[in-house]
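[User] Once you have settled down, look closely at the record that follows, and write a paragraph about the fold.
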Amino acid sequence: MKYAIGAILGVALFAWLFSLCSPPGKNKTGHEYMPDMYHQVAYEANQYSAYYWNHWDDKSVRTKAELSQPRGNVDGTVARGMTGVYYTGAGALDVVRGKNASNAIAVQPNGHAPFYYQNTEEDRLACEQQMIGNPFPITQDGLDRAKPLYNIYCGVCHGEKGDGQGWLVTMPDSKYPAQPKNLMGDDMISAGNGRYYFGIVYGKNVMGGYTDKLSFEERWQVIHYIRSLQAKSKSLEYSETANTLSNIEQPAKGTASGPARAGAVIQ
């Protein structure tokens, strides 16, 4: 009798242990051998929603959504080499970049810059009206660096030509719910730079913001690149030697910023 009971208990224990490793079904994930071997507790980068399976920090004063967001700087501080500089001339940028004899320590003018507009429709309109000039001049180097950034972060929706025909829209059997904005339309060509910068910071509709993807200077260089696509669509010039699209953005090596044409930006 004693051996029979032991055998029965052994079989029951084996069956129970085997059930813990049951395979997943159509509507169930199956059983886990032990907690956290399948559902990790680590937060993933740029994952803004609360991580459901993470219970290790339940006593934190911050929500799981806050814990899963990218970390910012300590209030009132700016990381070394991450300053934002508003363009005031080539000489000023040379100083910041360490090319001036009086300043041997270079910092990149592409980091943090104050942005005092809130994510409201009222501030969006105010930003477009008040943020007019691009703080960086038109340079070939800037356009070359901005092209891959645009294609990575913008082109997938707005298209490589900026016509709103990105891969998410044109791929086979695509059912993307929102048609991306056609940046080559006259309304976007005449839109102020602030409209673009505000959209990059906060996003619009189903488009999210890109402040954690594009630095201060990169945002403005991408705007330059969009302007160059707009000029190309109108058979105009937008380069470091001439700008016949508008009288706003200034070429780095030339003074030719022709009179604003039909559909062009007017200051």
About this structure: The chain has three domains: 23-68, 80-114, 116-257. Residues 80-114 form one domain. Confidence is low (pLDDT under 50) at residues 258-267.
